[in-house]
Amino acid sequence: MKIKQSSFSPLLFIIIICSISFSSCLKDKCEQTYTYRLYEPVYMSLTNLRAAVQTLPAKEFNETGKIYYMEPYLFVNEINEGIHIIDNSNPSAPKNIAFINIPGNIDIAVKGNTMYADSYIDLVALDISDPMNVTEAGRVENIFPDRVYENGWTGDPTQGVIVNWIESDTTVTSDCNNYYYPMWEGVFVSATMDIASNSSGLTGTSSAAPGIGIAGSTAQFAIVDDYLYCLDSWSMDLFDITNPTHPVQTTTVQMPWNIETIFPYEDYIFIGSTTGVQIYDNSNPATPTFISQFVHIESCDPVVVQGNYAYSTLRSENSFCGGFTNELDVIDISDITNPQLSKTYNMSSPYGLGIDNEYLFICDKIAGLKMYDVSDPLDMQLLQTVNIQTPIDVIPVNGLLIVITENAFYQYDYSSGGLVELSWMGK
Q1: pLDDT value at residue 138
Q2: What is the C-alpha to C-alpha distance for residues 243 and 251, in angstroms, rounded to an integer?
Q3: What is the pLDDT of residue 421?
């Protein structure tokens, strides 16, 4: 799924970190030395991109992303590469059975025997009726045209899509009075700068409806009835999937910039963003209509809902998230037109979360996986913390908890009121 961040140049992204040492007496000529790491994009042509979908033998996990559960299968995204298919008929002994090669894949959603997945700029419909032989059944081309890569870098769409980077270093020396900007066309640059006076020796350095699967809280795809919703950074694209293998875009709902996650609940859609939670009336899935919003300080924000409360984790892990807050907000939505903050709980670095009746599960990435009793949402009780590395998102379903980390997934039985590990798979 594409993420539009900010107005970075499409050809050049420069970070210059400077550490300058000063002397009480600088003489003669001053020189400054820049050391650059160049990132030259490697492109895949659109022709090759659109011929790349295929089912391959199962392979090991490397960099896992989103998860999706469609009994008895678990689908695990390998970021920008495709989807692992896990036979989860026995959660105590899951089987990695196949891998769907989908370049540029981030998000998925499933209804019946059809999986919907992004492939860089395209939306692909896949026939998964035979998980050992998944085939492409339909494609909507150029529906996500403005793919933005890591750190806000963009590419040249006439060359295709960026699938890798070639790194190299170079050093340039110039006079201190002439500030130097590298201008290598089509190459992205990061830089460090050393400054030296050649006379003083001074130096310085720096360097879930029937037939529809269940997604985690960080999902940007969702299915309601016969409609697929796909989030952009500032809009939601709707596709009519009455004919499952031929999705048809029907409309685009404009939203505030920086939307991140989508969570359908009853007749509503809850959109998490870096500035708050947007609530839409979805009683007619063809035309979601804005109702209200809960505004919080700038921070990354997945959200889940149950009853009269929405639960939203806020984190400030990086510059994209912004802010300095790591917490869980409990939001009273009993008046859907006027959501109000009811309680805040401190967290370390919370990511995804999931709720099932009286149990709330939070991926507090630094502190581990946490399980709470939320019988009283305003007096949550911590029941258990499991120290697994980098938990990112969860799916709780009927006593089974599926947890994704940066390179693995775990499964727990929580039916007895505690987390009992059943299995894990990954690095």
Answers
A1: 97
A2: 17
A3: 98
Q: In terms of residues, how long is the chain?
A: 427
What is the pLDDT at residue 119? Answer: 96
- The structure tokens listed for 87 are 């036979």
Of all residues in the chain, what percent are helix, strand and coil, respectively (each to 5)? Answer: 5, 50, 45
Global confidence as pTM: 0.81
Q: Is the peptide bond before 391 cis (omega within 30 degrees of 0)?
A: no
Which residue in 269, 273, 268, 270 sits closest to 256, CA to CA? 273
Q: What six digits make up the tokens of 251? A: 């409309």
pLDDT digits (tens, 9 = 90+) for 77-96: 999 999 999 999 999 999 99
Q: Supply angle C-alpha 330, 333, 338, rounded to 5.
A: 115
Fill in the amino acid letter for 41: P
Report how far apart, in Å, the C-alpha atoms of 239 and of each of 115, 138, 208, 235, 355 are. 13, 13, 18, 13, 28
SS3 46: helix
Question: Does residue 200 surpass a pLDDT of 60?
Answer: no
* Per-residue buried b or exposed e for 90-121, using 16+ beta carbons within 10 Å of the residue's own CB: ebeebebebbbbbbbbbbbbbbebbbbbbbbb
Per DSSP, the residues of 83-113 read EEEEE-SSTTS-EEEEEEE-TT---EEEETT
Domain-wise residue ranges, the chain: 1-21+29-219
Give the lowest-confidence range in 69-83, 125-139, 253-267, 400-414. Answer: 253-267
How far apart CA 45 and CA 334 sit, in angstroms, is 51
